[in-house]
């Protein structure tokens, strides 16, 4: 019994969610640094009627899957899931506990860590050993910096891991599935349903060109210059989250993890800093132009070409040049 | 019903950020501070319940250095009834769990039916305080709330934001905790009248020592930031310079060559 790295598996609709394979990939990648092997990596899986999910994980990365099944765990709710995970952690005593930095992972991880009385590093992009200590690299200031954290002496070391931080585990394992039935206590959160958010309006996913504006545009009426450039290029207008939150543009224009994922031939980001949640939605674009007055803005890290300058000078100049080129 | 909003004062995201000489955090000398954007939405969510007559009092709490009282003043001017300031310079470097413990200690004896905070703070991006406070108080919690509705039977119905434009609807038995995502509402701004009224409102100040948390409460377990570094440069963009007209011509040339959209 016991393990060194415990991965909190996620599933949905009877399938293993991709983040689980990535967490297992990360666990296998870092285990040797702790002097551990594949036998030291386990997964905890709360849910109901998910024997097949458990078997799949045992066959691909986990030496053992601790399966916690109960009717109350049918769908995710923080209360219930947290107690199930906490109980398994107490029994298994891992050195490291990994959650995905997903809506459910970031929801439950702080509850579990606080329940165990240990610190937590969120949204980690890397876990590595340095001078005999485990260090957790995570973004701070919305991606402007990487913070390297030492979580200290307490165990387990708990982290939520950013999507894409590691490749999915691709090997096979002959793991076991073991059912455990911890007490869940009195549950005070109840899952009701999952539903689609509001839809309609523009569909950015089909646009060949997207000219996107961020908070740097400054106001709803100032979006005219963004719209003019989009029109000149025969494209659509995109936005970062603050723009749609503040009602400068409808929600359907929002690009990013909680908006749409786009991959146009050309994406022009104007006054957008380049937070990870925005980047995941547009990094697949064919050619990325970034215009930002801050030379250190993370958006330049994903752009093909960048201009450090005032968007109110650059954007109209580009619109003029495009119109001339097209004889408009 | 009483509501508590947990807020933080953070550097303006537009600030000129530089790493400090120790290499462990940002240099705070050139920063201007504002109320964390997410927290404005959390405060508004509670103020709306008060406007609707469902809540009798809205209290704002922050844990932070002296300067953070300014953010509490903003909350009071916007409509919060009173404020609590856990004042300690050491809090900046504390683990979120320690901050959560301090918050729980500071509100001991008060019965808040709903505690709201922002989904994350724009500086450290930890996304933990709401969940940690909920667990320490043994209350249910829902993160990334995009709607909030009080229902009969002492529950709050919350729509949590998931990815790909989906929402998860969850019922929380009160007392409960929510963390609020931006866009849930349109936060109001302080009125001149509100700013005047705020001057008479109470800010109760407590120190960590008052809460029975000694100097060893922070960092004794070895929790610390080892270093702060710029992010990896990625593939690195080709940077264009010069007057706007010239830069525009250069951009046009590349767009033509690389994308074929013109
Ligand atoms: C769970 C979660 C989900 C999220 N989902 C999304 C999402 O789907 N999409 C999304 O975009 N964000 C999302 N966010 C928010 C994200 O973290 C950032 O806060 C947001 O992307 C920042 O938007 P921005 O770049 O427009 O604003 P800021 O970060 O404020 O950047 C504004 C930029 O404009 C520049 N600027 C200002 N004036 C000028 C000028 N005159 N000329 C040129 N440049 C100028 C500044 O230098 C700055 O870089 C999410 C966050 C969370 C926690």
Please describe the topology of this protein.
The complex is a heterodimer of chains A (328) and B (262).
Chain A: E1 5-8, E2 11-12, E3 15-16, H1 18-30, E4 41-47, H2 51-58, E5 64-69, H3 78-92, E6 96-100, H4 103-116, E7 120-130, E8 133-140, E9 145-150, E10 157-161, E11 176-180, E12 189-196, E13 209-213, H5 224-232, E14 236-239, H6 241-245, E15 266-270, H7 276-282, E16 287-292, E17 305-308, H8 311-326
Parallel strand pairs in A: 1-4, 1-6, 4-5, 5-11, 6-10, 7-10, 13-14, 13-15, 15-16, 16-17
Antiparallel strand pairs in A: 2-3, 7-8, 8-9
Chain B: E1 2-7, E2 9-11, E3 33-35, H1 37-51, E4 57-64, H2 69-78, E5 82-87, H3 96-106, E6 114-118, H4 129-136, E7 141-151, E8 155-161, E9 166-173, E10 176-180, H5 192-198, E11 203-206, E12 224-229, E13 238-240, H6 244-259
Parallel strand pairs in B: 1-4, 1-6, 4-5, 5-11, 6-10, 7-10
Antiparallel strand pairs in B: 2-3, 7-8, 8-9
Helix pairs in contact in B: 2-5, 3-4
Bound molecules: flavin-adenine dinucleotide.
Name the features.
heterodimer, A: 328 residues, alpha/beta, Rossmann fold, 2 domains, nine-stranded mixed β-sheet, five-stranded parallel β-sheet, 8 helices, 17 strands, elongated, B: 262 residues, two-stranded antiparallel ribbon, globular, binds flavin-adenine dinucleotide
């Amino acid at each position: 019994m016991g393990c060194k790295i415990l991965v909190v598996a996620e599933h949905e609709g009877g399938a293993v969610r991709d983040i689980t394979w990535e967490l297992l990939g990360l666990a296998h990648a870092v285990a040797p640094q702790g002097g551990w092997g594949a036998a030291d990596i386990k997964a905890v899986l709360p849910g109901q009627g998910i024997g097949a999910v458990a078997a799949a994980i045992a066959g691909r990365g986990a030496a053992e899957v601790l399966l916690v099944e109960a009717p109350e765990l049918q769908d995710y709710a923080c209360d219930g899931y947290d107690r199930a995970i906490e109980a398994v952690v107490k029994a298994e005593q891992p050195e490291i506990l990994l959650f995905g930095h997903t809506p459910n992972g970031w929801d439950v991880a702080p509850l579990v860590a606080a329940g165990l009385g240990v610190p937590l590093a969120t949204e980690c992009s890397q876990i590595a050993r340095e001078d005999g200590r485990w260090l957790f690299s995570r973004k701070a200031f919305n991606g402007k910096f990487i913070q390297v954290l030492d979580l200290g002496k307490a165990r387990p070391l708990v982290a939520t891991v950013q999507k894409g931080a590691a490749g999915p585990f691709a090997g096979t394992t002959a793991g076991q599935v073991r059912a455990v039935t911890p007490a869940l206590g009195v549950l005070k959160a109840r899952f009701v349903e999952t539903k689609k958010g509001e839809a309609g309006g523009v569909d950015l996913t089909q646009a060949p060109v997207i000219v996107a504006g961020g908070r740097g545009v400054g106001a709803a009426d100032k979006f005219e210059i963004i719209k003019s450039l989009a029109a000149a290029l025969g494209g659509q207008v995109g936005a970062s989250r603050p723009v749609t939150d503040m009602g400068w543009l409808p929600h359907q224009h929002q690009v990013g993890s909680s908006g749409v994922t786009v991959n146009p031939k050309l994406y022009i980001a104007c006054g957008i800093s380049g937070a990870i949640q925005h980047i995941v939605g547009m990094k697949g674009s064919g050619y990325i132009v970034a215009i930002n007055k801050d030379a250190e803005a993370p958006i330049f890290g994903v752009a093909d070409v960048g201009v450090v300058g005032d968007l109110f000078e650059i954007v109209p100049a580009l619109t003029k040049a495009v119109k001339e080129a097209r004889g408009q | 019903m009483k509501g508590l909003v947990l807020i933080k004062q953070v550097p303006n995201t537009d600030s000129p950020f530089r790493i400090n000489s120790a290499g462990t955090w940002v240099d705070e000398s050139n920063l201007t501070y504002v109320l964390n954007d997410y927290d404005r939405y959390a405060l508004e969510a509670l103020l709306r319940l008060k406007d609707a007559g469902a809540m009798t009092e809205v209290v704002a709490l922050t844990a932070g250095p002296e300067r953070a009282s300014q953010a509490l003043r903003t909350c009071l001017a916007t409509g919060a009834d009173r404020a609590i300031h856990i004042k300690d310079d050491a809090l900046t470097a504390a683990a979120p769990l320690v901050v959560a413990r301090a918050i729980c200690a500071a509100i001991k004896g008060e019965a808040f039916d709903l505690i709201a905070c922002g989904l994350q703070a724009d500086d450290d991006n930890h996304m933990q305080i709401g969940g940690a406070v909920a667990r320490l108080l043994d209350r249910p919690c829902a993160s990334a709330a995009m709607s909030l509705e009080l229902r009969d039977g002492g529950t709050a119905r919350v729509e949590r934001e998931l990815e790909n434009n989906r929402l998860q609807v969850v019922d929380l038995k009160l007392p409960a905790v929510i963390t609020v995502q931006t866009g849930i509402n349109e936060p109001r701004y302080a009125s001149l009248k509100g700013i005047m009224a705020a001057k008479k409102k109470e800010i109760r100040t407590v120190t960590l020592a008052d809460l029975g948390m000694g100097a060893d409460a922070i960092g004794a377990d070895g929790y610390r930031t080892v270093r702060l570094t710029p992010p990896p440069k990625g593939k690195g963009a080709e940077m264009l310079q010069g007057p706007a007209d010239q830069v525009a011509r250069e951009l046009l040339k590349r767009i033509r060559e690389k994308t074929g959209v013109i």
